[in-house]
Structure of N-acetylmannosamine kinase:
Amino acid sequence: MKGADFADLDGRQIRVGLDVGGTKIDAVAVSPSGEILGRLRRPTGWGDDAVVESIVLAVSALVEETGFAVSDIGSVGIGIPGLVDADTGRVLHAVNLGVESLDLAVRAQQALGVPFRIENDVKAAALGAAVLRGVTGSMAYLNLGTGVAAGIVMDGQIWRGARGTAGEVGHISVDPNGRLCGCGQRGCVETFCGGGALSRAWGRPGALPVKDIFDAADAGDETALALRADLYHGAAAAVRVLVLSADVETVIIGGGLTALGERLELGIRASLRADAETSAFMRSLHLEERIELLASGSPAAAFGAALVGASVTEKEIVSHG
Ligand SMILES: [Zn+2]
């Protein structure tokens, strides 16, 4: 694609979205009509300076590869783990990036000369999943990765709650006698279905511990069978919590564990069905019909970040008259 193709943008500009993870950045360029024009992945740096630099490099590479100019970019949105102040663009406690406190929006904006907006990665992914899957009304995005978190979208808007913790279902305790969670409680949803917690409970070396657990369960290993059952039970509990607390119509499941594909989906569905068989109330909720799995490698998080960048910009234009 050549830069000339963007000459008729007529003031409506390219939106760039970046999903910044612990090891890689997933970057997309989105047209004014919402079409993904280009996508690439780059490694993420460690620590404040390297994180900023890797973000700037990712945007530059995306510009070059997709064939438009930095001046065609209307906004860049970033989804990033950790505590995010969406108003100031500051990121706090992003431990897997080596960041304690970083004025990310200000520093990236200085480097590239385009407006940056920052959002928590799971909240951005929730928005992206809602738009990509054409969900209107209410939905929750349940991210099953190293940790477990969810984002809630109501009528096209991210729902944060009073202090930004809406959707933190990973730390709802569902077993007071369960495994100790990193947050200090016992039996959190995350201790059942978070990849990190399952990997620690499994305790055997391997690059893909959750896949190893599934393979060992298929071979009849009792520890693996119990951990796989925990995963299904925990994910089903998260779905139940999201529907019972926010009454979202749809729960879209994404995150690294979706690489397990049907092995994950069928188990979660079976767990929801088992709940429905023993409870008329659960049966009345039709939970199994309300879940969807994103395909592994979905651009939802980066796409959602692009929407975050664009939406905040529009709001600012309105408020400044
Ligand atoms: Zn916890």
